[in-house]
Amino acid sequence: MKQTVLLTGCAGFIGSNFVKTVACRADIKALYDFVIVDALTYAGNLENIKPELDAHSHLKFHQIDIRDSQKIHDLFKKYAFSGVINFAAESHVDRSIESPNIFVETNVLGTLNLLKESLALFEAKGNFKYLQISTDEVYGTLQMEDAPFTETTPLAPNSPYSASKASADLICRSFFETFKLPVVITRCSNNYGPLQVEEKFIPLMIKRALANEPLPIYGTGMNIRDWIYVDDHNEGVWKVFTNGTAGEVYNLGGASERQNLDVAKMILKALGKPESLLKFVTDRKGHDFRYAINFSKTQKELGWSPKVRFEEEGLNRTIEHYKKLWAK
Ligand code: NAD
Ligand code: TDX
User: Fold this and answer.
1) What was the pLDDT predicted at 327?
2) Any idea where the domains of the chain sit in the sequence?
3) Contact 90/102 with Cβ under 8 angstroms?
4) Taking every annotated instance into account, which residue ranges of this chain make up the domain NAD(P)-binding (predicted)?
5) Is the pLDDT of residue 33 over 90?
């Protein structure tokens, strides 16, 4: 019999790409139905997944806020899910510095609502998997000489965003330790690719360059992020969901550490724009210097590794996508 899995936050960047490249695959479609919920905040756009919702009857959509415990309860009553993949979150660090409350409400309390309903189903019928989509930012920041984060690196989040994600991870852990709810957590590095909200670094740089407007570089631009193409992340998510061991954390990374300034210069070069468009601006408060991920556990246990090379493949593909949207 087909299983029904709840996907949250799939009108956003990573989730909508998951719907396209994983949830609609013929082999997966044959075995799973997916119920997608999203609150459609400023970051969610139903158009992102409209072609898939129109074309595939194994996908259903409900506009629901994961903070709404009654609606989440009713949803779990309606569908006897066998699993949950929780992509839904407030995801932008700068917004969390300005307005942290909603980060705690959605990322922590919303996650708790999903866990409580998952537990009720698990206790009633067994056979359940809950996957929490987390981030490398929960580990804090690295200096140049530090070794990349492993799954046992202590949590040391620095922004209200990363603190809310770390809190959610700990609540997830507690549901495994206390109730034995089969929970797995993925912690991934910076994603890039199509359909990302333009407040994030790569689409913002592309949009500004296409419009011949200044590209805002925080601080010195020396900060380092490890970039992963969104499809590589989503392949890892599915591997962890289907084959990961309950109670475990799995790191996912792109093996592509780059300085922000270098990435901005690559984008300018690819678009034939001058470096005079670079504009150094006031640094982000508490700006983490470097993220780097050791994903050898996921590689060894689940046979996952990132495939898309940053300069040669992923960045150009991403630039072409946004050029079609934004080039005049
Ligand atoms: P996004 O901001 O593009 O999308 C988030 C989605 O969640 C949107 O569709 C939004 O409408 C929905 N949402 C927000 N609040 C909600 C609520 N209360 N109820 C229901 N839906 C709600 O984010 P993203 O970049 O796609 O990130 C998805 C997940 O991956 C997040 O959990 C994020 O923390 C994590 N993550 C992101 C990255 C990255 O580089 N973008 C890296 C690692 C982990
Ligand atoms: O205008 C900008 N100028 C700039 O220099 C913006 C928006 C960002 N930056 C810098 C800050 C970071 O060093 O670029 C880097 C990337 O910034 P963001 O795109 O805001 O991503 P980051 O803060 O690294 O967090 C992202 O990766 C981990 C996602 O937003 C998170 O959701 C994810 O968990």
Assistant:
1) 79
2) 3-196+227-254
3) yes
4) 6-312
5) yes
The answer to whether the Cα torsion of 228, 255, 152, 288 is positive or negative is negative
Residue owning tokens 């005049």: 328
Verify whether residue 161 is a known catalytic residue.
yes
In angstroms, rounded to a whole number, what is the distance separating the alpha carbons of residues 322 and 328? 11
Which atom of ligand 1 lies nearest, measured to the CA of 191? Answer: 40
Place of tokens 């129109």: 54
Active site residue 136: yes
Which ligand has an atom closest to residue 195 CA?
Answer: 1
Global confidence as pTM:
0.98
Here the tokens at position 266 are 């690559």
ipTM of this predicted structure: 0.99
CA distance 161 to 137: 9
Nearest CA to ligand 2 atom 8: 201
Amino acid at the residue 279: K
Q: Is 254's pLDDT higher than 80?
A: yes
Q: Hey, whose CA ends up nearest to atom 5 of ligand 1?
A: 12
3-196+227-254 adopts what CATH topology? Answer: Rossmann fold (3.40.50)
Q: Which residues line ligand 2 (CB under 6 A)?
A: 91-93, 135, 137, 190, 200-201, 204, 216-218, 223, 225, 260, 284
Q: Are 22 and 235 in contact (CB under 8 A)?
A: yes
In angstroms, what is the span from residue 93 Cα to ligand 2's centroid? 7
> Is residue 255 helix, strand or coil?
coil
Atom of ligand 1 nearest to the CA of 16: 26
Contacts of residue 325, defined as CB under 8 A and 6 or more positions apart, other chains included, come to none
User: How many other CB atoms are found less than 10 A from the CB of residue 300?
Assistant: 9
Backbone Cα Rg of the chain:
19
User: Taking residues 118-141, what's their average pLDDT?
Assistant: 98
Residue type for position 7: L
